[in-house]
Design a protein that fits this description.
The radius of gyration is 28 Å and the shape is elongated. A 3-stranded antiparallel β-sheet has the order 1-2-3. The longest helix is centred in the last third of the chain and has 20 residues, at about 85-105. It has helices spanning about 40-55, 85-105; strands at about 55-60, 70, 75-80. The chain has 2 helices and 3 strands. α1 (about 40-55) runs antiparallel to α2. It has a domain at about 55-105. It is α+β, with helices and mostly antiparallel strands. It binds zinc ion.
């Protein structure tokens, strides 16, 4: 007794399929050229730029105190701390860099979670608010 031959042979292409090397036919419906771009080129470039400008460089070093640090391509030293790990600092640093890069090139008028541009000196010191004079008189 002999086993039955397999039904599908590799060389037997089903009717209607075209080889992958065939160029698209002229006037084919559903051409992809007019599809909207989900993310604009400036935002994509900003994301790539943030990624490359904030790549960790060198190796993880352990200080005499037992802290672990690694340098970032931007010049900042990333380190662990009393309540966070080196990995957490790296993740936050990259996320901040991505946010700053994207927020700077985002389309005008786009609804934002964070006010933009950031208030002056937003990276250090308390923001405006406590002694603000922008409210109506309360007397
Ligand atoms: Zn960096």
């Amino acid at each position: 007794m002999t086993a039955p031959a397999p039904v599908s042979a590799p060389s037997d292409r089903p009717a209607g399929t075209t080889p992958a090397t065939a160029p698209p036919a002229d006037g084919a419906p559903g051409g992809g050229d007019d599809l909207p771009v989900p993310v604009s080129a400036p935002m994509r470039h900003a994301k790539v730029r943030a990624f490359t400008e904030h790549t960790t460089v060198g190796q993880v070093r352990t200080t005499a105190d037992g802290d672990v640090t690694i340098a970032c391509a931007c010049g900042m030293t990333l380190t662990n701390g009393p309540g966070w790990s080196l990995d957490e600092h790296i993740r936050l640093h990259r996320a901040e860099a991505r946010f700053l890069a994207l927020a700077a090139v985002a389309p005008a008028g786009i609804p934002r979670l964070v006010d933009w541009p950031l208030p002056a000196g937003g990276a250090s010191g308390p923001g405006p608010g406590a002694g603000s004079t922008d409210g109506p008189g309360t007397r």
